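Friendly challenge for the regulars: who can give me the structure tokens for this chain first? No prize, just bragging rights.
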Amino acid sequence: MHRLIYLCDWLPPDFGAVGQYSLLFARERAAGGEDVTLAGLSSSAGSIEEEHPGGAGRLRVVRLRAPVYNRADLRTRALWTARTNLALVWNLRREIRRADEVLFTGSPPFLIHLLAPLNLLLRKRLTYRITDFHPECLMAERAQPSAALRLFHRWTVALRRRVHLFEVLGEDQRARLLEIGIPPERIMLKRDPSPVAIPPGIEPLEVPAELAGRLLLLYSGNFGVAHDHETFLEGYRRHHREGSGRVALWLNATGARADRVEEILRREGLPFHRGRPVPLELLPRLLATPHAHLVTLRDEFVGYVLPSKIYGCIQSGRSLLYVGSPRSDVHLLASRDLPPDRYRRVDVGDAAGVAQALEEIAEAAR
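First reply, four minutes later:
Bragging rights claimed.
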């Protein structure tokens, strides 16, 4: 029986798209007859559970207790990542030694810097589900990356050449790997599905009282450094100062940019409601509640980050406003899977285009 150890970050019930998908994929592989150990993090307590999804396969889910940290502080984030990665590898050392294959994700970042050198001794098959690119994301945050960061990037690229197989989320990620010399035969496209099914006629959630009577535009999930907010906010301001003002933002998000967006909206006196990510069992109802969804992505992060919310947004059947580059798979998926009248894309920096798109969403809802 093929033995797989699968490493990721936050596992349900903690909020985290990577963990949700990892649990889904681990169950699929166990159902196919493999002996799978999925290891991730929990903010509450450590635990070990065992499942038998079907056939001769087995799934053990190992949760390690880990503290929640401040992502906005780089030093705190670096220390947390180093400690967490060491804890994951140390606590799973027996499973790693016995495994035929070690599959790790881009979250937590930099696991490759432990696993690739260790594998010089262990000689396991390494599979990298490269959910986000690190340190490229860190470099994209800076106008001028330091010499040390560029050197660290070169070392990371060298370690990637020791990975046997990459699972990429989109064609934009495939292009990034090809750019750094990864052979195409070692790259496999494996998209994330929608995290939930949204059946027809599902009951939506109650509309926040302060947004009653308006058309809802929902941003749900993480709003971090990879996501553009300036373009949207300026277009949103124009929609309310110069346009019909019929569309209101439901900011159901976490992350440093979410706090910044809330601060600006409050200062400008623009209508919005700030919420937090809902439990997974309520996600179908949340996604079915708004008239339209919002996805944003800064150009520097195209191919390094693929906003996972795109799958649920498409599954909901609601309209979608995407602020970002056509080179991202966000555009590829939305333009392929949504009717033309339900999808609008605006370049980063085009605030007038955002304002026009919001007017079009309002007009289409008449």
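Residues 3-189 form a domain with the Rossmann fold fold (CATH 3.40.50.2000). The longest helix spans residues 74-91. Your move, everyone else.
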